[in-house]
Amino acid sequence: MQRTIEIADFALPRGAVSIQQLMAMPRATWDHLRSEINRQRQIDPLNPLARCRLCKGPVFIRSHYASGGHAPVYAHYPESPADCPWYQGVNLKPDDARAAQYHGHQESALHRWMCETIATVLEQDPRCRLVTVDTYRRPSIAARGRYPDVYAEIDGLGKFAIEVQLSKPFAPEIVARHIHYEAEGVALLWVFRTLDAELPQGFHDVITLQRGNAFLFDDDAVAASSTRNTLVLTGLLENDRGGFLKPRLVALDDLDRSSGRAVFIEDRRSDRLLDYCRAGRAKWWEAFKEAPPAEFDYPFDEPCFIPAWDSIKAFVPELSPWKRRCWSEQFVRGDRLFAELAAILFSIARTATTGKDRVYVTRYNDASALTSMLNAKLAAQAFMPFATLIETMLRATPARDRLVRTSLARAFEHAKLESEQIAPGHPIWSGAARLFPEIFDGLRRAELDDLGKLPGWAGGASQTAQSSS
Ligand SMILES: [Zn+2]
Q1: What ranges do the domains of the chain cover?
Q2: CA of 373 to the centre of ligand 1 (A)
Q3: pTM over 0.85
Q4: Hey, what CATH topology would domain 106-268 get?
Q5: Distance in Å, CA 133 to ligand 1 centroid
């Protein structure tokens, strides 16, 4: 049932004109009224020619096509309050919103039209128990408080908060909303109208929280929603080249909301993050497999460590000048020193993964091989500057229980007293961070942890068992 504005109050001398009077007018009369309203709107939008009797909001005359021709009806301009009892509902065609763009109300009109249209198609869904639309005129999501643009409760799917975002989402607010709705058990979905080639940062922030997914309520989505009597969105998934895969139409039923944090079609971020981590150490695992310390007195001279070194110095270019300095200042082969340090870190990772001591440097192979190896290495002058680095790794993993053993705790203390420690920013620390971002790369570690994907060996609570390979 379509609600309608029953009475419009025109500026004097015209006065009140009921909908019955309007509809009884000859076409030329209401055509003239219509163009006068539009003209006044151009000249002085704050003083509209006609206002709704109930809400006092500005109204215009919409030409409504019915059987046999056009008929005039009143309609609220976008800035009229949405809670007017005569609010006319939604025009499924965005023409009004587009027309309003020329009157300087581009964003609020389009925003309103999107919110109302989304609510309307949700109402068509027989599973939908409740739909509400917030006032759309407040300028920013910050000002809109905790009320979502559209809120819906759908049997079998749950509660959804839908934010229509047309420009400049503000990062702290975006995050605050995710936190808020996660706590409320409401799935938060950000919906755009289009995605420009050059996206504002706020859009990237939203897409990040949605794990590489973007949702549009564009013309295709509107048409599909209207046909299927439920909300359908155009879903865009990030590809690996900074763009998006071919768009696909998705209903709310198609979305994964198991993570709580965000709703998405596919998690495009976590796997890439984990791939990034694995790529940093792939060549190293090959080398350690090929040259186990049980078979080589000094494995780090073996040719298999050449591609390993090449890979890390490609990732961390500052290792090359560091290596030259090692030689010119100390006659130390930096690449071998790094390989041996890497072997220490890989020993911690592998032991943490399996819970069984396994080392890639020294020939210890008993149940306390890791502790014995660490004790031996920390006693050597060459590795003392890395005590903090090694301890950081050990503490982050389940193998941290080794630190309870006083011999190892003392070895760390001693090394730190004897030698100045390298810190984040040092080429070696950066190299370690590229081998084990899950440990040393704070941003990626936190992101994985946030997503519930930090592997168990790195101290996370990831449900899926992920090895350090
Ligand atoms: Zn009204």
Answers
A1: 7-89, 106-268, 272-458
A2: 79
A3: no
A4: Restriction Endonuclease (3.40.91)
A5: 16
